[in-house]
Write a structure and sequence with these properties.
single chain; eight-stranded mixed sheet; alpha/beta; 2 domains; Urease, subunit C, domain 1; TIM Barrel; binds zinc ion; globular; five-stranded parallel sheet
């Protein structure tokens, strides 16, 4: 016993030392590193304002939320941000980071801690601990000769799991097989294109490279194939996201039971169809800023009507498009607020709703961790902070002063 005792004392000493001084090797094995963030304003993904709150991070997770006084003694590593706002890391639900070779660290440094790539090479979920958390739907299921391959890689008529699109022809078995391959490869949702083209102002109607835009209408999948894709995806527990821009594709999507539309449609949709979609509980990913050229009689009209009907909206900005920031997009939030708030004058809850749609609501939909996008005990420690109050000025979110991904700080301008 006497020989063992000094070793125990040494262990105790090193544990204490590591908690105080943070020796990395010992901290990794025995004492999770803690960090306490304190700021004047706090948003947990649902409620704002919450004044003078602190977030205790242990390892890669949020351990506790409470007043600065209550949590002050729980961790010696304190980061007091002062007149700033702590928020969950933002979630981009419609991106093409991999397909367009956008640098992931740039996206993360601009406040987006999670993206869902919706069209592009199929990859399993990656990142989340100091790196951008990247979810992927893989290639978009499409008709032969149709969108998106006809615009992006017209020489490639079949696509594949490493491309922006993958074609299915006429067999339900083939459609089911492709959905199974996507799910097996880690797709977090299944995306399908129902796009006959022709919408004025849509990005897909602008020339890409040297290729002319093919004449519309473009080939569409048959209703039977679309239904087979939706049924198979649902049987595998996957959401179906449809790329839709106009009336024909919209009605096909609603009739087939898709869960989500990847865009606010570019061309005007009839009120009856919009109502059918709302009744069916379809979620609309906004992408209003990148589609702004679709204009007031199409895009804006649809958003406004859906707002009046109480539709469900999720923020999406199309990170990787050249006409939007590759990070948080304040203008997208601004357009969401003004176009989708509903019948009453804009009130503060409408503002908070926009923030929910890019944090907690977006995280719950992705299906990888229900706490993603929320700052509650057990949630991933994906956190951003900005000086001042972003609920009064969305733009400051595009230049966050602090970004933490899975407990690892990747931006901290408060130290300077
Ligand atoms: Zn897109």
């Amino acid at each position: 016993m006497k020989k063992i005792k000094p070793k125990n004392n040494f262990l105790l000493l090193t544990l204490l030392t590591c908690q105080i001084g943070g020796f990395p090797i010992l901290a990794k094995a025995d004492a999770p590193k803690c960090q306490l963030l304190i700021a004047k304003q706090f948003f947990d993904g649902v409620n704002f304002p919450q004044p003078n709150m602190a977030v205790l991070v242990v390892g890669n997770k949020v351990k506790q939320i409470g007043s600065a006084e209550a949590l002050g003694n729980q961790c010696k590593t304190k980061i007091n941000l002062g007149d700033a706002t702590i928020l969950p890391g933002f979630i981009e639900s419609h991106a093409h980071v991999t397909f367009q070779s956008v640098r992931k660290d740039n996206v993360l440094e601009h406040g987006i801690t999670t993206v869902q790539d919706t069209g592009g090479p199929l990859l399993p979920v990656e990142g989340g601990q100091g790196k951008l958390r990247l979810l992927s739907t893989g290639p978009i299921i499409q008709a032969v000769g149709g969108y998106p391959l006809n615009i992006f890689t017209p020489d490639d008529t079949a696509g594949g799991l490493d491309k922006v699109g993958i074609t299915v022809t006429s067999s339900r078995n083939e459609a089911e097989k492709v959905v199974q391959q996507l799910a097996d490869g880690g797709a977090t949702a299944i995306k399908i294109a129902l796009e006959p083209g022709g919408e004025t102002g849509a990005p897909w109607m602008m020339p890409h490279g040297d290729h002319p835009i093919p004449d519309a209408p473009w080939p569409l999948l048959s209703p039977e194939i679309v239904q087979a894709v939706v049924n198979k995806a649902h049987a595998l527990g996957k959401r179906v996201i449809a790329h839709v821009g106009e009336q024909v594709g919209f009605d096909l999507a609603v009739a087939s039971g898709v869960d989500e539309l990847a865009h606010m449609p570019c061309a005007a949709i009839s009120d009856a169809s919009l109502q059918n979609a709302v009744k069916a509980g379809i979620t609309f990913v906004t992408t209003l800023d990148t589609l702004a050229s679709c204009g007031p009689t199409g895009l804006h009209y649809n958003a406004f009507r859906l707002g009046l009907m109480g539709a469900n909206f999720i923020y999406g900005s199309e990170v990787a498009h050249d006409n939007v920031p590759w990070g948080i997009n304040g203008e997208e939030m601004h357009m969401m607020l003004h176009l989708t708030h509903g019948a009453d004058a804009i009130n503060f809850d409408d503002v908070v709703n926009v923030f929910r749609s890019v944090t907690s609501k977006a995280g719950q939909r992705l299906g990888v961790n229900p706490l993603l996008g929320s700052l509650v005990p057990g949630a991933p420690a994906d956190i951003i902070a900005v000086r001042g109050n972003p609920f009064e000025r969305f733009k400051i979110l595009e230049y966050p002063d602090l970004v933490m991904s899975g407990g690892k700080i990747v931006v901290n301008k408060f130290e300077k």
